[in-house]
Design brief:
CATH topology of the largest domain: Molybdenum Cofactor Biosythetic Enzyme, Chain A
Number of strands: 29
Oligomer: single chain
CATH superfamily of the largest domain: MoaB/Mog-like domain
Strand content: 25-35%
Mean pLDDT: 95
CATH architecture of the largest domain: 3-Layer(aba) Sandwich
Number of helices: 7
Strand order of the largest sheet: 8-5-7-6-10-9
Number of domains: 4
Largest sheet: 6 strands, mixed
Distance between the termini: 29 Å
């Protein structure tokens, strides 16, 4: 067996970052930038009001209270999207809506809640004094020409996309999403709701892996279920590598499996077949076929998901340009503990995590067998149990979230 870190380093050492493409903003969320972006203009482009109210000269509101209100002449209205050439003079105000440009002469805005309109809107009574700059958003308050908006390697969030749109950038150079093909192998696998014949099981791994890939922002190609036949397996692999950046197979990588997958991949690719010192997901195949990364994941449902988290997801994230490849590990308390026996492996237990009194409370999600998918579905994290006797009740346990 080999250590987990060694297997992960091997995978990451053989995948490469994909090229960058000009990507429309609507398609860019979650991508990693390949360029730095600076603002070419002021944001906001003009001084504007942050509230609905009245634009005033702050000096005209001096001493205003609810008992001693200041009255001003209203000389017009400015709605968002419009402007006014009028100049606010002494004793005057202009009604103004949120986002509208400040009129000349005014240096503050009184919130409408602090005012009362009368004389058919021609005058306004103000019951609170304001200072210069109150409720005014200055031109360039957010960005000025030349200010850095994005660095190379930024993971684009909705906020980043909004900033880009605010400076008129509707495309950004970013590393493209890996296109990942997925197929399952095995004569025992069937689809559909018809009654199962003896020895048959329904294919669940493919649906799980496709969903995991989509959740993590990768583009997916469903290559279906392939029977245990070398010619058909080779055809599926060749179709996959011809149109994809990576390929995930499920099944056929354990020592006791029929060697159809192994025979095909060894013949047409450069593969390494590993037994990793972890439980579940000990068997792993990884290599290149025509330069395309191929991940051979175990056939047991939980093993397939754990293997995806530990190996395929980090590798695909590297291809996408991410610098943070692995999920961050946290520490919580295990009220019930986690028992295990020494076996030279790191165990990954399916757990539920809650916050109790400011601490993470980590408990088993149910059955821990590699075939027990229900517990994995109910888990939101994997607890990391190093080789040894486990974690005593009330002890600290390391974990990482998977949902």
């Amino acid at each position: 067996m080999i250590e987990l870190g060694e297997a992960q380093e091997y995978v990451l050492g053989r995948v490469s970052v994909l090229g960058a493409v000009a990507t429309p903003l609507r398609e860019a969320c979650g991508l990693v930038t390949a360029e730095a972006v600076a603002s070419p203009e002021l944001v906001p482009p003009f001084a504007n009001t942050a509230v609905d109210g009245y634009a005033v000269r702050s000096i005209d509101t001096t001493g205003a209270t609810a008992e001693l209100r200041v009255e001003l002449e209203v000389i017009g209205t400015i709605a968002a999207g419009s402007a006014s050439d009028a100049v606010v003079g002494s004793g005057q105000a202009m009604r103004i809506m949120t986002g509208a440009p400040m009129p000349a002469g005014a240096d503050a805005v009184v919130m409408v809640e602090w005012t009362e309109s009368f004389d058919g809107g021609g005058r306004v009574a103000i019951d609170r004094a304001v200072a210069a700059g109150d409720a005014v958003r200055g031109a360039g308050e957010d960005l000025r020409p030349g200010d850095r908006v994005l660095d190379v390697g930024t993971v684009l969030t909705p906020g980043h996309l909004g900033v880009l749109a605010s400076i008129g950038r509707y495309e950004v150079s970013a590393h493209r999403r890996p296109k990942v093909g997925v197929f399952s192998t095995g004569d025992e696998l069937v689809e559909g709701s018809a009654p199962l014949a003896p020895g048959q099981i329904r294919d669940s791994n493919r649906y799980t892996l496709l969903a995991l890939l989509e959740r993590d922002g990768f583009e997916v190609v469903d290559l279906g279920v392939v029977v245990d036949d070398e010619a058909r397996i080779e055809d599926a692999v060749r179709r996959g590598v011809a149109g994809c950046d990576a390929l995930l197979t499920s099944g056929g990588v354990s020592m006791g499996d029929f060697d159809y997958v192994k025979a095909v991949l060894d013949r047409i690719g450069d593969m390494r077949w590993m037994q990793v010192a972890i439980k579940p997901a000990k068997p792993l195949a990884f290599g290149l076929v025509d330069g395309v990364a191929v991940f051979g994941l175990p056939g047991n449902p939980v093993s397939s998901m754990v293997s995806f988290e530990l190996f395929a997801r980090p590798g695909l994230r590297k291809m996408m340009g991410h610098s943070r490849l692995h999920r961050p590990r946290l520490v919580g308390t295990a009220p019930d503990g986690f028992g295990r026996r020494p076996d030279d492996k790191t165990h990954f237990a399916r757990v539920r995590v809650d916050v109790v009194n400011g601490r993470f409370d980590v408990r088993s999600a149910g059955g821990q067998g590699s075939h027990q998918l229900t517990a994995m579905a109910g888990a939101d994290a994997l607890a990391v149990l190093p080789d040894g006797d486990g974690v005593a009740p009330g002890g600290d346990v390391e974990f990482f979230l998977v949902n």
